[in-house]
Design a protein that fits this description.
alpha+beta; seven-stranded antiparallel β-sheet; 17 helices
């Protein structure tokens, strides 16, 4: 086989090899940098992993000792004591402290001259200390110039002192000191002394010395002044603590390590106790401002880098040789069949449809290219036939579209539902020839108009057929049952029973009383309708969506209601309206829909729908419509005729029913008594629910409250705020109270549309109202954790109150609906 230096195989091999050479050169150039970064990252991760658990453990112990000191200082300043009381207090405090933190070895109290118990002029220092097996009381003196006392007295703030070996506790200790204050006659704080909690740090040496660190490393702990207090025994080798100093390498110099101006953790190169250079990862111990360090000898650190470089070099050279051979083989294999295909393509271009196309084995691009050639003739012939079939399908789809649209009511007179008490107009534009959206309207009787809007999952012929079935069943059930909820339940069962294709439909339907404007409605997963009031304001009707129809046979839907006023316009729509998308992939959205309906002003229902469609077109511009757009607008005009409430009673005249009709009438007329009616309206109605304190019961309480408040027709905003308050209050009880049960009492006053919720739990005493409000002006990452939930409750409720009633917490919130 001749070698063609002008051929594709040679050129392709040459270009690929040149590219690979450049790539490998760049890889070698940046190899050292990448390897260094990778090992640094591994070292940091190793240091983080080693530090995290140990720092948390140390922080936990020191924070516990700090809390003990703060708690004891409050008890000392709240209750005056005699010397005897002070001794009892110190002994009991040390006992309690050691139960919490066994490393606590002493509790010390020292007063300013004349401020101690029963010491009107002199000094007073007393401590309880633990000595191996027993606890003793010791009296101290000459403490005024001691660092632990003077620094706390002068600074007047709590602090951890630098570790030292105590006068009365002959072992290294860390001391947490707290200033003691009392109020003078002017109500100002006056320092009276210092309380100290002594904590042994001998345990740190054992803990730190036993920490396993990879690559011959070790751990140590230094104080805020860079004094080593815990380190392996091997590191000491006769050295004292002050000789074990950590230094950082800056250029060619070694300087004492200083954490000022640094992050709370990081990596640097330095030495420990003038030893060999090491990679050192440090982490701040927040409770004491000490530093936890993990140290790796630098020789081992650099050895890993060199090993990785050698391994990378060997792999790169081997890979380069293998790639060189493979490229040559592939290039020559590809070039040969391409020549044969090029020859066949020239014959095919001259109109020879009988040309033999070379057959290629395999499934690579060249084989697919040959397969495409071999099928080209057949596809060209089939395409001519398909063009004829497409015209026939288009004609049939046009016919299906016309049939679908003709099945939906166009004008009210077609349904004998035209009435001066309302005005109605529909709009439907399928995204394809046929679609899954539908609307409907019809009279149930002379005074009740039913309006429906729905959206079937999917598009095309299948959605259109499912839509027609759903509309017919729902229409029939509503006319016969005269109840929107019963009709939903029956229709859902019929659709779900044989739903083999797992399709579903969202539906919103309402029955409007044309005498009063009252609407009874139900929703099966559909968008809530909008309402445009006579004064021009616009809002969504509060509507709780149930499960979509045809999903489950035994779904039960909830009846909801709304009161329309004269001049109000009800606007029903499908998600093709709110989810219309423009070229920037932004949705038309709920807010833009409300604003559009508001801009439509006093347009009639037909022009309102047309106006909304024009605003959608203006928003999406040239982007094709991807979903059906369906709307139905209904304006309630009302009637000036009085509305009679109708009650019906049927009895058997052959039975013993004497007095039954009289009782029936009295039950209707009695509530109409003026004084009694006002008394009933002003009264509070009370409901109660008791649940166990587990997270899952939050939904039970929320549903319990919604079921009580829903008939009061409050605003959607107030209901949402109440739900958020339930969430926050119940979550706090579950997480923090330790309660085992919660009682929720709901009281409502219908005359003022007011609700009062009282949470009663048997947990530990806790008043959330006293908690300081979070500073919401700060960025989220700078705020302290907690407090935001109860802050939201206080801001959204009309009133929030707390009281401790016996063994129970009682938190009450009040909200006008």
């Amino acid at each position: 086989m001749g070698f063609n230096f002008r051929g594709l195989a040679f050129k392709q091999s040459l270009m690929i090899l040149a590219a690979i050479t450049i790539v490998f050169g760049l890889i070698f150039g940046i190899m050292s940098y990448k390897t260094q970064n990778m090992l640094n990252k591994m070292t940091v991760e190793n240091g983080e992993e080693t530090s995290r658990a140990n720092v948390n453990y140390i922080d936990k112990l020191f924070n516990a000792s700090k809390l003990i000191g703060e708690d004891l200082s409050h008890k000392l300043t709240d209750h005056p004591m005699t010397k005897s009381d002070m001794d009892d207090f110190l002994l009991q405090s040390l006992f309690n402290a050691r139960n919490l933190v066994p490393q606590v070895v002493a509790v010390v109290v020292a007063y300013e001259p004349g401020m101690g118990p029963e010491t009107p002029k002199g000094e007073y220092m007393r401590l309880a200390r633990f000595n191996h097996t027993d606890t003793k009381l010791v009296t101290g003196a000459n403490y005024q110039d001691k660092e632990w006392y003077a620094s706390t007295r002068d600074g007047k703030t709590s602090r951890w002192q630098e570790p030292f070996i105590g006068e009365f506790v002959p072992e290294p200790i860390a001391v947490y000191t707290v200033p003691l204050f009392k109020k003078d006659k002017n109500g100002e704080d006056v320092l009276v002394g210092v309380l100290a909690v002594d904590m042994s740090i001998e345990f740190l040496k054992e803990e730190i010395g036993s920490i396993p660190v990879s690559n011959s490393g070790y751990a140590l702990v230094t104080t805020a002044k860079n004094l080593a207090v815990a380190y392996p025994k091997e590191l000491a080798q006769g050295k004292r603590n002050r000789d074990i100093i950590v230094r950082e390498k800056r250029g060619q110099k070694l300087i004492d390590f200083d954490r000022k101006g640094r992050d709370s953790s990081g990596l640097f190169i330095g030495t420990v106790a003038d030893g060999e250079e090491s990679a050192i990862y440090y982490t701040t111990i927040n409770s004491t401002n000490w530093t936890f360090m993990v140290v790796w000898p630098i020789q081992k650190y650099l050895k890993d880098q060199s090993a990785m470089r050698r391994l990378f070099l060997l792999m790169a050279l081997g890979g380069y040789g293998i790639i060189f051979v493979i490229i040559l083989l592939i290039s020559f294999r590809v070039a040969k069949p391409l020549k044969e295909l090029a020859l066949a393509a020239r014959k095919l271009g001259r109109g020879n449809f009988d040309v033999a196309i070379p057959k290629m084995k395999g499934r690579d691009e060249v084989a697919e290219f040959a397969w495409a050639f071999s099928n080209m003739l057949t596809e060209l012939k089939d395409n001519i036939e398909k063009q004829k079939d497409m015209k026939r399908i288009e004609r049939e789809l046009d016919l299906a579209r016309n049939i679908q649209l003709s099945m939906l009511p166009g004008e009210e007179r077609d349904e004998n539902s035209d009435d001066d008490r309302h005005e109605l107009a529909p709009f439907l534009l399928p995204a394809k020839e046929v679609g899954g959206d539908f609307y409907d309207f019809f009279k149930i009787d002379n005074d009740h108009l039913c309006v429906v809007i729905g959206d079937v999952s999917g598009k095309g012929v299948a959605a259109a057929l499912f839509m027609m079935v759903a509309r017919i069943i729902l229409r029939t059930m509503t006319k016969n049952l005269k109840s929107v909820v019963d009709a939903f339940n029956k229709t859902n069962y019929a659709l779900a029973k044989r739903n083999r294709l797992n399709m579903f439909v969202t539906v919103w339907a309402g029955i409007i009383d044309l005498r009063t404007g009252h609407i009874d409605f139900a929703s099966a997963g559909h968008n809530p309708p909008a309402i445009r009031h006579k004064d021009g304001s616009v809002e969504f009707i509060p509507s709780k969506a149930g499960l979509v129809m045809a999903a489950m046979e035994d779904t039960v839907y909830k009846q909801q209601s709304y009161e329309m006023k004269k001049g109000d316009t009800l606007f029903l729509y499908t998600d093709g309206v709110t989810e219309a998308t423009n070229s920037e992939n932004k949705l038309f959205g709920d807010d833009r829909l409300l604003e559009t309906i508001k801009k439509s002003g006093d347009l009639d229902t037909a022009n309102t729908c047309t106006f909304v469609k024009k605003e959608i077109d203006k928003f999406v511009q040239d982007v094709p419509q991807f979903d059906d757009i369906t709307m139905l607008a209904v304006k309630f005009n009302g009637s000036d005729e009085p509305v009679w409430e109708r009650y019906e009673k049927t009895i058997d005249v052959s039975g013993n029913n004497k007095g039954e009709l009289k009782s029936f009438v009295e039950d209707i007329l009695t509530p109409m008594d003026g004084a009694k009616k006002m008394q009933m309206q002003d009264a509070w109605e009370r409901y109660e629910k008791i649940v166990d304190v587990i997270p899952e019961n939050q939904d039970i309480l929320t549903a319990f409250v919604e079921g009580i408040l829903a008939p009061m027709d409050g605003s959607m905003k107030s209901q949402m705020q109440i739900n958020i308050a339930i969430d926050e209050i119940y979550s706090n009880i579950v997480k923090f109270s330790g309660a085992t049960r919660v009682t929720l009492i709901v009281e409502v006053r219908k005359a003022t549309l007011t609700a009062r919720l009282t949470f009663i739990d048997n947990g530990k005493p806790y008043d959330p109202i006293k908690q300081a409000d979070p500073d919401i002006t700060l960025p989220a990452e700078e705020r302290e954790i907690g407090g935001l939930g109860i802050f939201i409750v206080k801001k959204t409720m009309d009133s929030v109150s707390y009281r401790r009633n016996g063994e129970n917490n009682e938190l009450a919130i009040t909200k006008t609906l």
